[in-house]
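Database export, one record per block. Field names are fixed; values are copied verbatim from the stored entry.
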Amino acid sequence: MASEGKRGRLSLPGTSGNGDEGIIARVSNTISQSPIVYQGKRAASDAAFVTKKLLKSTGRAAWIAGTTLLILVVPLIIEMDREQQMNELELQQASLLGTPPVAPQK
């Protein structure tokens, strides 16, 4: 029964029995605490922030341009189309009535 007293806790492969971290964990911690990694993470965070702001302002500009187009340009296009249809109708009626067509004024 003396062998039972010498039994220790079971340890996982890659870890030592005295509670120290494994080699992979130490290397990973060393790399993740590196100043280069910190600067890289900070640069990525700054780039994401700038991209988010840019997309937000671009979306606002697209909304403004779209609503301006709907309010100002679309009615103008509709009115120009009506004018063109009226001119064609007048020319068609003039040809049916036998009057010579009037040349469009420029």
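Remark 1: The chain has one domain: 22-97.
Remark 2: The two ends are 116 Å apart (CA to CA).
End of record.
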